[in-house]
Write a structure and sequence with these properties.
8 helices, six-stranded mixed beta sheet, binds iron/sulfur cluster, 259 residues, Rossmann fold, 40% helix
Length: 259
């Protein structure tokens, strides 16, 4: 069922339909492949698999590709990603013969922010870091979500305490600034690191080169750093805030907050 965002009646009907979908499925026994297949059939081009090219995103992408499930693949390009990430995107596009959608911040937003606070405003305070994440990540993500009724992400409980407490396998979220709802699927939410690594190995899924340098995930240059053995997985994000009183919630950039 495709939504017509201009019509209030249509939005209500679509919201109700999505609520029924969430309620009627037994998501706990639905495999990741079945979830991807359902999303593709139900939403067509209004379903998107959004990834920052961590293993979970690549595993789902590989599952969809090997089962012939057509899905849009998208990423948020903050324009500050590591060089290795840009190279990896090109590698993935070549290997699978596809184009990854790249959602960028608006030039006017970047110019205004950098003009007021400078390129490296995220060092100054938590508020300025969140402002930068809003401009470079959240706003482009919201633009992407305007084009979908189903957002598939690689979020997993093991990634952080915050995610363990808040994330679900399938849920409804609201589109920013509208009454419209959309489905958010996290098909690998209960997968462990070991299970992911095993799938990657056994299925020869391409792997981002920064894993080998100790990065648990890949964000922007400077803000995402490798972690040492025993450190929390989010400890490498905005490392300069680690000595201040932050909890795992403060290490979220707003991308996965339920709206
Ligand atoms: S991770 Fe850093 S550079 Fe990237 S958007 Fe957030 S504050 Fe800005």
């Amino acid at each position: 069922m495709k939504s017509d965002v201009k019509n209030t009646d249509s939005i209500s009907k679509c919201n109700q339909h999505l609520e029924n979908c969430i309620r009627d499925f037994d998501w706990e026994v639905t495999s990741p492949e079945e979830m991807l297949s359902w999303a593709s059939k139900e939403f067509g081009s209004r379903a998107v698999l959004a990834t920052s090219f961590q293993r979970s995103g690549m595993v789902m992408f590989h599952m969809a590709h090997s089962k012939g499930i057509p899905l849009r693949i998208a990423t948020i390009d903050t324009m500050r990603l590591h060089d290795e990430t840009y190279s990896f995107i090109e590698h993935v596009e070549k290997r699978y013969s596809l184009k990854v959608e790249r959602w960028h911040p608006k030039n006017s937003h970047i110019e205004r922010m950098v003009g007021r606070f400078g390129e490296f405003l995220f060092f100054d305070s938590k508020e300025k870091q969140e402002h930068c994440c809003d401009v470079r990540k959240t706003k482009p993500k919201n633009s992407m979500l305007e084009t979908v009724d189903c957002w598939i992400s690689g979020l997993r409980w093991e990634q952080s305490e915050h995610r363990k407490q808040t994330a679900k396998k399938a849920t409804l979220i609201g589109e920013y600034g509208t009454q419209r709802k959309l489905v958010k699927l996290n098909p690998l939410i209960d997968w462990s690191d070991q299970r992911l690594e095993r799938y990657v190995r056994e299925n020869e899924v391409p792997e981002h080169s920064l894993y080998a340098q100790g990065y648990p995930s890949f964000g922007c240059k400077v803000c995402a750093t490798p972690i040492r053995p025993g450190e929390d997985k989010r400890a490498g994000r905005w490392r300069w805030f680690n000595s201040t009183e932050t909890d795992s919630n403060d290490k979220e950039c707003g991308l996965h907050y339920t709206i």
